[in-house]
Specification:
The complex is a heterodimer of chains A (293) and B (174).
Chain A (H helix, E strand, L loop, with lengths): L1 H5 L1 H23 L4 H33 L1 H44 L4 E10 L8 E3 L12 E3 L4 E8 L4 E5 L6 E6 L5 E5 L2 H4 L4 E7 L9 E4 L11 E10 L5 E8 L8 E7 L19
Chain B lengths: L2 H25 L14 H12 L1 H18 L6 H19 L5 H25 L6 H33 L8
Helix pairs in contact in B: 1-2, 1-3, 2-3, 2-4, 2-5, 2-6, 3-4, 4-5, 5-6
The chains are: A alpha+beta (293), B mainly alpha (174).
Chain lengths: 293, 174
């Protein structure tokens, strides 16, 4: 030990200790660090600290995914629950919005036709193999829907209730060859029957047959229901005349009709359960309620 | 330059790199942070150097890396340099004159050094200023750091022993 205290090692270490003590006392007295030494140590270490900090943050972020797995899992579950509730609200909102729009249309129709007893319905199914765009609605006999009730939208006639279940109904559209609707041209007052056509239905058209040969019907004329026969109420828009041609027999005219309602894409409809002058039934075998004049 | 001198330079450069790396780890936010407690890695590293390379080398490492710690510490500038120097010189002399150079003794030296350093910091940095609730602070902040640092002294002990043997001159190896 004596040897150490006499060595120059000891003197150097003592000098360093005194120096350290001196800068410590100076720093304590002045309240600030020895600028040069502090700066020198910082200058040397800062670049490495930056790299280390950057790497630590990256690694930390990566490891946190695993370290906080349970917390993250719970958070994900919580967020999923929130998302589910939000989606429920969104669905509810969309339903309400659609209902609102539907009721607006309903109100408009109700105002013009106060005798109508409507049942709003939603299209819940479509038969993809049916080329006449038949569909199923979510309202049935418990809602007061009966076979042969007209099905409409605010744009116009869509079809007719064909079969009624307890909580659903099958609807056949005016593009269907089995459906016949008594109509008239609102401009010329010429009447005829609108029915489906195998060829035209692919293009979402139907045909108006039995028009008098001398009829003044023209393209663009609006065709509405005649109301005769009591199956469809009077003056429901059916469609517009697209083209006219002479019947194969040469005795009458046939017009191609573009339906007013977007039959292929309809999602919400109104079933008219009652209207003034409604008849008791619809003759399915003959196809129509005898509405022609 | 003789082979022996070159070997010595490489050895101390390796030591310096390790202690510097320990300093980087010690000061990097978030790294080795266990519930807000970070170990002091530089002091055990310097103690180990002092134990294996003697009081002079240990004292120099303690002084210079103490200054590094001061630059990143909230303590009075020079405090760590002074304390590290003194502890490292003591550790170097102690292993020559008092203790055997066993792992347990080195860990005890590290524990003692960290404990004294923390006690000094606690006394001069907190007790003297008369802050309230200092006892819980000691148990929840300082004591865990002492324990934590002592645990980390073990890998340093193993590492520096291995390096010391690795750089030992061929003639002195058995």
């Amino acid at each position: 030990m004596q040897k150490f205290f006499k060595s120059w090692y000891f003197k150097v270490l003592c000098a360093l200790a005194i120096f350290a003590a001196a800068i410590m006392i100076r720093a304590a007295a002045s309240g600030s660090a020895e600028v040069f030494l502090s700066q020198a140590a910082s200058v040397i270490s800062q670049p490495f600290l930056k790299i280390s900090s950057s790497v630590t943050n990256s690694v930390g972020d990566f490891l946190n995914r695993f370290a906080n797995a349970e917390e993250n899992y719970l958070r994900v579950q919580e967020l999923e629950e929130e998302l589910r509730l939000a989606n429920e609200k969104l669905v509810d909102y969309e339903q309400k919005k659609r209902e609102n729009e539907q009721f607006r249309e309903f109100l408009g129709l109700k105002e013009t036709n106060p005798d109508y007893d409507f049942e709003p319905a939603t299209v819940i199914g479509r038969d993809s193999t049916n080329r006449f765009y038949s569909f199923t609605i979510d309202k049935g006999s418990i809602h007061g829907v009966e076979a042969a009730d007209p099905v409409i939208t605010a744009d116009g006639l869509v079809g007719i209730v064909w079969e009624v279940g307890l909580t659903y109904s099958h609807v056949r559209t005016i593009l269907d060859i089995s459906v016949e609707v008594g109509v008239y041209d609102i401009s010329t007052r010429d009447s005829g029957i609108v029915t489906g056509d195998i060829t035209l239905s692919a293009s979402e058209f139907c045909k108006l047959k039995y028009l008098p040969k001398e009829s003044g019907i023209a393209s663009g004329n609006l065709i509405v229901t005649s109301g005769i026969g009591g199956v469809f109420p009077k003056d429901l828009p059916v469609g517009n005349v697209k083209s006219i041609e002479v019947d194969s027999s040469g005795l009458s005219l046939t017009a191609v009709i573009s339906p007013s309602a977007d039959i292929e894409n309809v999602t919400d409809v109104l079933v008219i359960k009652y209207f003034n002058g409604q008849s008791t039934g619809y003759n399915k075998s003959s196809g129509e309620g005898g509405e022609t004049e | 330059m003789t082979k022996l001198l070159r070997r010595k330079i490489i050895k101390f450069l390796t030591y310096a790199l390790i202690v510097f790396f320990a300093y980087i780890i010690q000061t990097t936010p978030g790294l080795f942070d266990f519930y807000g407690i970070k170990p002091l890695l530089v002091l055990p590293a310097c103690i180990c150097i002092a134990v294996y390379e003697g009081e002079f080398a240990g004292g120099l490492f303690g002084f210079f890396f103490g200054l590094f710690c001061d630059s990143a510490s909230e303590t009075v500038f020079g405090f760590n340099a002074f304390v590290f120097l003194v502890f490292c010189v003591f550790a170097g002399l102690a292993t020559i004159y008092i203790f055997r150079r066993s792992t347990m003794n080195i860990m005890l030296l590290c524990f003692g050094a960290v404990f004294l350093r923390s006690a000094l910091e606690y006394f001069f940095g907190f007790i003297l200023y008369g802050y309230e609730n200092l006892v819980p602070f000691f148990y929840t902040e300082i004591a865990p750091q002492i324990v934590f640092t002592s645990i980390f002294s073990f890998p340093f002990c193993i590492l520096f022993r291995w390096l010391h043997k690795k750089f030992e001159p061929e003639t002195t190896k058995e």
